[in-house]
Write a structure and sequence with these properties.
Layout lengths: L2 H6 L7 E4 L3 E5 L7 E7 L14 H18 L6 E4 L15 E5 L9
Antiparallel strand pairs: 1-2, 2-3, 3-5, 4-5
Bound molecules: adenosine monophosphate.
Adenosine monophosphate (AMP) binds next to loops.
Length: 112
């Protein structure tokens, strides 16, 4: 099981902020912004490049969940950023697709 599957199964604790039958969102353990939440599909897709056409609906649900969590966090008016790290150069460390939702501060562009 991936670390995030264990969070889905409640085998390890997490600060869960949103859940549906398909999606889970929880606070990142090492936050990089005042609001830093990981939004994941419950289905295991290791990384974006492993997603298939059949995953289109779940990928859409993950993005819509991120927007809903942003509203609930009160950062939809000030702004937020979504990030998906794929592979070594991007710093991917957990092989279970996750969208980082970051907000609550202004952010530089381009990202480092
Ligand atoms: P990435 O580097 O894109 O693979 O992101 C993985 C993220 O998972 C990092 O931002 C970590 O801080 C976060 N993380 C690792 N372990 C946990 C955990 N147990 N609970 C919440 N977030 C975690």
């Amino acid at each position: 099981m991936t670390l995030f599957e264990k969070i889905i199964a409640r085998e390890i604790p997490a600060k869960i902020v949103y859940e549906t039958s398909d999606v889970l969102a929880f606070r990142d353990i090492n936050p990089q912004a005042p609001a830093h939440i990981l939004v994941i599909p419950k289905k295991v897709i290791p990384r974006l490049g492993d997603a298939a056409d059949a995953d289109a609906i779940i990928l859409g649900k993950v993005l819509l969940a991120a927007a809903e969590v942003a509203r609930r966090e009160g950062i939809d008016q000030t702004g937020y950023r979504l990030a998906i790290n794929h592979g070594k150069d991007a710093g991917e460390s957990v092989p279970h697709l996750h969208v980082h939702l970051l907000g609550g501060r202004s952010m530089a562009w381009p990202p480092g």
